[in-house]
Amino acid sequence: MHNPDHSQDVTAGEVLAPYLHARAADFLRGLRLHGESGSDTAGAEEAARTLRGAARRIGGTLHTFRPLLDTAWADQLRTELAWLSGTLALEQACTSRLVRLVDALSRLSNGGGPVPAARNAEGGPGITVGAARAGALLERQLTLARTRAHSASLQALGSARFHAVADAVALLASEVPLGPAGAAPAIEVIDAPAELAERRLLDAVAALPLTRAAHPYNADALALAAGEAQDAPWHQTRLLLRLHRYATEALHTGGEPDPVLYEAARALDAHRDAAEAAAAAAAAARTPRIAPATAYALGVLHADQRHEVEAARFAFQRAWHRTTAPVVS
Amino acid sequence: MHNPDHSQDVTAGEVLAPYLHARAADFLRGLRLHGESGSDTAGAEEAARTLRGAARRIGGTLHTFRPLLDTAWADQLRTELAWLSGTLALEQACTSRLVRLVDALSRLSNGGGPVPAARNAEGGPGITVGAARAGALLERQLTLARTRAHSASLQALGSARFHAVADAVALLASEVPLGPAGAAPAIEVIDAPAELAERRLLDAVAALPLTRAAHPYNADALALAAGEAQDAPWHQTRLLLRLHRYATEALHTGGEPDPVLYEAARALDAHRDAAEAAAAAAAAARTPRIAPATAYALGVLHADQRHEVEAARFAFQRAWHRTTAPVVS
Lengths: 329, 329
What we know:
By secondary structure, the first copy, chain A, is mainly α.
């Protein structure tokens, strides 16, 4: 079904079902991978990634097309899938945050070029020493958090709660519980929910300070005290963009994903990652009894990641203007 | 003499003399202002600014047009003027560095918007507390440095060495000691030195990583350990751009300064100021026994100012491409 024209013969349920069946099958494949992975870390990671991707897409579809579905069932499964993908995401988030921060520290303290060690004097109270200590501190803290997240994942995947989710998804692989509107012709009912998802996205983007973000080096993201408050609308836009992408996937099964929209989504992912890495650096700096050199390097790192937040906003507005120039104008 | 055409009747000395006479007169006016300023701080600042501006322009002209002048005299006076303008610049540099750093701390810790205090949690170990302490530390250190610079200025202006400079400049207000080439027709000898100054500038700019600087958020300037080494060619370009501007002033007396070239020069000034402010933050962080929160805020501040360094490079390449597009292409 490529760009279906939703003829009168096709019900909304018939349009959505193949997408939900396929994502449910992905989920079950992830489950199988998880069972087979044993102590194979790479296999376990792929299993978790597959489970998460499928859970996000099913949950997003249940959210967007809720009016066409059995709403009690959809709401319940969506809540459980959100719990599951949130739990599974934590371990990977700790790993990638650590990699991001250690890479940034290395870039900050090595200068990235063939610079003689003797020129390092300018970089603060031994930025190299401070960076090494800060890196060790972050590694300790994030490795601990990752270990906890790993245990939480394993516990979740072994829980009765998870088995109930897996059973529900297994049923979804063959049957989608529809509401009354799900039996209506797709042409009449299926566009409105997708358009609502797009409208929410467009409204959220319209409320972002994109003109400001288009001015490089505006230093907005470096207003540290305003950090969370100024980040929230961008994080919200990231979620709405994801819902919009999944809705598009569901209605154009087999179609090519829009590469520019994908780039915009990547920019918002980077925005989120940098904001969380900055927060992790700030949190590490609150560790009692750290040396001033360590605190200093964490301050540099915090500002550096907020710089990356700003860079991600710049990248988003650039991608977005290419994506929607015809839609918005 | 507006855009002189350097006819055969005009000697090189006759072209340069009015400019040097005028700058020497500026210098003497600055000296008078200094004598009259007494305890009037604003007056003393204006006097120092006038003296410095005149000293830089005379020194630059002696440097660029050295082949046309009495070289022994030019070299000697230029050395003395460099000493004087360097000494006088320090106090103002301390003041503006402090203002820059305190403004940045305020921007970093206040968030620039109506953000409730309760949202400040993200900003590290009390970024507000750390910023206040860092500000107090910087104020102490830079005020001390400024007081020392002020004493050094006063001492310099009262010294026999300064009086010798003032005497030499007073002579220059009425007579320019020329070399043999100074009596040659301007059309034959005056363009080569000015073109050499321009060529040096163009070569220096060509060696800058402008393509890289044109990519916003490249994070080059945040490679802290490479700080001084990567800044040097930009600082050198700043000096060469100044020499070029002064040479242009000398040959087009009364002409309008090129606003875009001025903008490029301002960007390189901002580059230098931000680099020095970053170094001051780094130096403050090396103060023994500071609290981790203070060190943290200084680290944020250091990275913030390196961010400004990068922003200045971006601004320079943008201005430069407008300035020289016809020249370079």
